[in-house]
Amino acid sequence: MRASPTILVIDDEAGSRESMGLALEKIGVGVKTFDDARAALEHLERRPGASLAICDLRMPDMDGLAFLDAVRSRELDLDVILVTAYGSIESAVEAMRVGADDYLTKPVDLYELRKRVTNLLENRMLKQEVSSLRQRLDKRFGFEAIIGHSAPMERLFEQMRLVAPTRSTVLICGASGTGKELVANALHHASPRRNERFLALNCGAIPSDILESELFGHEKGSFTGAIGRKIGKFEHAHRGTLFLDEISELYPKLQVKLLRVLEERSITRVGGIDSIDIDFRLIAATNRNLEEEVAVGRFREDLFYRLKVVTLNIAPLRERPEDVPLLAEHFLERFCTEHERERKVLSPAACEVLQAAAWPGNVRELKNVLESLVIFHQGAVIERADLPADLRMVSSSVGGSRIQATDGPPRTMREIERQAIVETLELHGGHRANTAKALNIGLRTLQRKLKEYKRQEAPAEGEAS
Fold first, then answer.
1. Could you tell me which of 315, 261, 283, 280 has the C-alpha nearest to residue 170?
2. Residue 406's pLDDT is what?
3. Are 148 and 320 in contact (CB under 8 A)?
4. How many Cα atoms are found within 13 Å in the side-chain-facing hemisphere of 156?
5. What mean pLDDT is reported for the chain?
6. What's the CATH number where 421 sits?
């Protein structure tokens, strides 16, 4: 339950001091009265936490202006209302000029006093809520939300710190599941645009026939079904940041239009004729090699160079195994809280298995594995045996040098996967259902892979069988 705010009333006139104190108590606040501003200041230094001070402007020893100056110089978190008996415009202007939050004239209208105090307290509460929300957003979307202390991640953090405050377009490259949107969000929240919108759009998740309308918006009647005007993502992102994920999925017509937007910083809605100026920062992301896409003609070269003003590369998880324990600890704590489970930790052996895994799905795959363990595992310590069988098998095979022979070239993940499946099948006497269960994959997936292996082993036409 939120504690009632405390208000200090400072006035050397006893009658005025007591009447203001009694009036304020009626709105449910705590009141402390002082006949001396210096005594009030000493109280604040000993026991900070008051929300507001109402201080008479004219007092012996320390007057209201001196009290206000002391509060501001000590950077005390306190709103101040100055009270003047003269009611002159000059004293009111002076009070506000030196930093008072409000002023009142004597004789004080007690109704007006309560109204002014209530407004200041509500504004103060709103500011605190905004500050708290910003802190939560920074924790969720800021740099600290991106976990890692490996060399590739330290390089990424340094690049992000340099590019975040700028207006530059950014291209984020990385495999699926590495956290490209998280990086984009962190760039936005560390930029001067942090108080404006961050809008994300996955270009590969929206059918091509409606993607243009999603980006540019449309006018009423511009096509069948356009029953009203629609504002697109470009306009909504005005003064903010637009994140376009899977930028390689843009079809050629939209690539041309995006290039024009980046050069002219204006758009025209579908079916419209008016040019609309927009100010936004573009952050794009891709899990493909755009240079290769340009080489084969699937992506425009001029747009590619316009996007890669600044390029950030996120290393796959397999290239930074030292980050796995940190990520695992973070996800275990998060999911234990979300699912109201007892706190869980990984045993050293289990942690070694996770660090040895290839993680083709990257951080997203690790997160899903750990959430499943939190939900289904009984007990506080997750042992090696509690991990999915496919992770244990690949780790064991690699650790035992049965897959990666030291005297030969490195084996591919496809070869490692095949070895793990074949060995598990042999371990279960050819029983496919038990094998699929042990590997934590679907029976259909197992059957499909076995068919692929059988086709690969079949002799080519013309060879002796």
1. 283
2. 41
3. yes
4. 28
5. 85
6. 1.10.8.60
